[in-house]
Design goal:
Elements: H1 16-36, H2 48-55, H3 67-81, H4 100-112, H5 123-139, E1 147-151, H6 154-169, H7 174-177, E2 186-191, H8 197-205, E3 212-215, H9 225-237, E4 241-248, H10 260-270, E5 273-278, E6 302-305, H11 307-310, E7 318-322, H12 325-332, H13 364-399, E8 403-409, E9 412-417, H14 431-448, E10 454-458, E11 461-467, H15 475-497
Parallel strand pairs: 2-3, 2-4, 4-5, 5-6
Antiparallel strand pairs: 1-7, 6-7, 8-9, 9-11, 10-11
Helix pairs in contact: 1-3, 4-13, 5-13, 6-8, 6-12, 13-15, 14-15
The chain binds pyridoxal-5'-phosphate (PLP).
Length: 498
């Protein structure tokens, strides 16, 4: 060991023996945790006050404490009082079970602590990120010579795409002049089912939320092409500058896939930047029997996807892909005088020039390792199975006398509980009551800790929503969720009627 650098005795440092002991103890507890997940409640439904009491409300400690005790207590705290989205019966939101290898990858990434903002600061990490971006593009059938980078989540991935599109499509220097007085209103088109990121993007980009044109959807929550055309023609006549069209590949509410091929044609004709929000659904493009609209992602100018959703990466991991890498540089690269890094002949990527972050973590590692661990085949198998499980639930709900199936797109199934005397055109059927009933049912189900679903509101109907983005869910679990919904529904219905 080099004497020059040892034994500083800094309070945060750990000698290698302590680190080994701490790490081994932690890994043992985590292995037990993974094993015990199915036997734990999905959630304790604990109150904020109770959690605060658990962690204590004291001020910042003056002196330190023993790390062994700290780590083991904190591990127990998190394992006992968290909502476990890795539980087989968690199908609440598009939040996946996380790969155990990804957890180790995060530990490894943090230990090396690469700063993937600049190539020189992260030689291996930057190349692994570049390869991850190429592999993600390949996975969804997008051109692999695109530009792209890892970001924190779907919101960021989509927001980055909008900022890039705005810069590429403004016919003045919008980076310098901004949306100055007298600038035309640049408008963006998306369906009413589009995720709320678009409002944040419009607000922070200077476009203003007034620029978002929410287009009506059809009975299957897909954007209406006629309504889109009408709105765009009107905007042009009013002097607006339409610049961006957004299609969603798997909507957050019901998993609906917009008519992406028709949207791509429309964007081409109208010279709009075509962006696809595939935060949830994009990985389904890799399936041999992918819906036809999922096969046209290569026609998009940009795509957002979230490995922390359907590639089961631990949170946070998302990715923005932009067909022409130069557009990212045009939007985000600046050359401050204090960044004087060596230029390589075969330059590696300096990721701070492609996005908003400067110092950047090594998010790609967990994605890259899982892609290598199971390969394309492994992912096809898991995603295909999730889709089959959602269909299984849909089929069960269709056949059951007290359930009503509503939709099944990708791996999201919506349905609701309907008491037998309120089915179909029954004179007893009361939409308001059914909404109240299903809302109460869902709350009770969630609090039971036995399974976790969420809701969607479609055409005024409060529906139960199961998102199967979980490699631990099985056909038995799906069957038990259906039974549990019926049991809970009967009980809640009885309570509400009495
Ligand atoms: C989840 C989701 C988002 C937001 O992604 P985050 O990772 O939660 O920021 C955006 N769009 C769609 C379609 C999503 O499903």
């Amino acid at each position: 060991m080099n004497d020059l650098y040892t034994k500083r005795g800094a309070p945060v440092d750990l000698d290698s023996d302590s680190f080994r002991k701490l790490g081994h103890a932690l890994i043992d507890q985590l292995a037990d945790f993974y094993e015990s997940l199915p036997d734990r409640p999905v959630t304790e439904a604990i109150s904020p006050a109770a959690v605060r009491k658990l962690i204590g409300t004291g001020g910042l400690p003056l002196a330190g404490s023993d790390p062994h005790q700290l780590l083991s207590e904190t591990t127990a705290l998190l394992q006992q009082h968290s909502l476990h989205n890795g539980h087989p019966a968690f199908a609440g939101y598009i939040t996946s079970s996380a790969t155990p290898l990804g957890a180790l990858a995060d530990l490894l990434a943090a230990s090396v602590n690469a700063n993937v903002g600049k190539w020189d600061l992260s030689p291996v990490a930057a190349e692994i990120e570049a390869q991850t971006v190429r592999w993600l593009a390949e996975l969804i059938r997008y051109p692999t010579d695109c530009g792209g980078l890892m970001v924190s989540g779907g919101n960021m991935a989509n927001i980055l795409a909008l900022l890039t599109a705005r810069n590429a499509k403004a016919d003045w220097d919008v980076r310098t002049a901004g949306h100055h007085r007298g600038a035309p209103l640049m408008t963006v088109y998306c369906s009413r089912e589009t995720h709320t990121w678009v409002e944040k993007a419009a607000a922070i980009s200077g476009l203003g939320t007034q620029a978002v044109r929410w287009i009506d959807t059809d009975d299957e929550q897909r954007i209406c092409m006629d309504a889109l055309k009408t709105q765009l023609d009107k905007d042009r006549a009013d002097g607006c500058r339409p610049f961006m069209l957004i299609g969603t590949a798997g909507s957050v509410s019901t998993g609906a896939v917009d008519p992406l091929a028709a949207l791509a044609d429309f964007a081409e004709r109208e010279q709009l930047w075509f962006h696809v929000d595939g935060a949830y659904g994009a990985p389904a493009a890799m399936l041999d029997d992918a819906p036809a609209d999922m096969r046209v992602l290569a026609r998009a100018d940009s795509v957002a996807l979230d490995p922390h959703k359907w590639l089961y990466s631990p949170i946070e991991a998302a990715c923005t892909l932009v067909k022409q890498r130069q557009h990212l540089l045009d939007a985000f690269a600046f050359k401050p005088p204090y960044y004087n890094f060596a230029e390589h002949a075969d330059a590696g990527e300096n990721y701070y020039e492609l996005g908003l972050q400067n110092t950047r973590g090594f998010r790609a590692l967990k994605v890259w390792l899982s892609l290598r661990h199971v390969g394309r085949q492994g992912y096809q198998q898991m995603i295909g199975q999730n889709i089959r499980l959602a269909r299984q639930l849909y089929t069960l709900a269709s056949a059951h006398p007290q359930l009503e199936a509503h939709s099944c797109n990708l791996s999201i199934c919506t349905f609701r509980f309907v008491p037998e005397d309120m089915r179909g055109q029954s004179p007893y059927s009361d939409p308001t009551y059914l909404n109240t009933l299903n809302e109460a049912l869902l709350l009770e189900l969630q609090q039971s800790g036995e399974a976790f679903l969420s809701n969607a509101v479609v055409n005024g109907n409060y529906l139960l929503r199961a998102c199967v983005v979980n490699f631990r869910t099985t056909a038995e679990v799906i069957a038990s969720i259906a039974d549990l919904v019926v049991e809970t529904g009967l009980r809640v219905d009885g309570q509400l009627r009495s």
